[in-house]
Here is the input.
Amino acid sequence: MHTIAELVADLRRLGVPAGGVLVVHSGYRSLGGVEDGPAGVVEALHRAVGDEGTVLVPTFTTDLVDPYTWPTTPPPEERARLMASMPVFDPGSSAPHKMGAVVHALWRRPGAKRSVHPVTSWAALGPRAEELTRDHPLEDPEGIEGPVGRALLADAMVLLLGIGHDADTTIHLGESLLDMPHLYALPDRYPLIGAGGGREWRPVTKTTKCSDGFVRIEPHLEGAGVIRRGKVGAAECQLLRSRDIVKVATTLLVAHPTALLCDDPECVHCPTSRQTLQGWRPRAGLMESLPR
Here is the structure.
């Protein structure tokens, strides 16, 4: 059983600084037994960044989207049934979908703030929570004007707590900053409350796609010397600067646009993305304008 104090010591030994913004992607079971369970992990993260620091986690509700872009697309009759019964996102009651126990614990902690994006919301705890989560754009949710973009501008650190880069949303930010064309393929549709007060399905043209292939970025990050490795509890962890992830990702994607797509022929996104990206190059001067 790992105590909260032991986790705090591990986080500081890894290099988590006091103050600033810490973006956390977590796998609770990888930590082993923890004092007070997932709430104890949240407390350890809070203590590690201190009273002046802010912890930011994804609270995605990827079950609240037109099922035609689900990993396994249901048949038409089932899709229609699901869409007819699908609730509208509510930041106070819509539980994160398959995001893990630490995310649930932070979202429910008193004082935490949550953005209102209907599918890719984020929750934050700390003095910059409101700043990071307010006015989350419906379009391009992982772009520079969303929580993960604001974290970049705040020079955030990204902690992978027992999981890999397939959960690293900052790589999606790199795709957004390059305005890659596959982000516009297979647009999503979300159930929202319309101007008349009734429920309506709203199309969203620029959205994130499959991230299963993001694990391929790790050797490039390793080669750039930007990964700090260590254990927190029993979990193998990585700590990186958000700006370093974006720099490595955008450099890689400009040279090899399909480098971070998965190879699953049944993937709902990547075969289409691969076709869309053939021959793509960023517009002139774009790379020089990216935040570094």
In short: The longest helix spans residues 242-255. The mean pLDDT is 95.
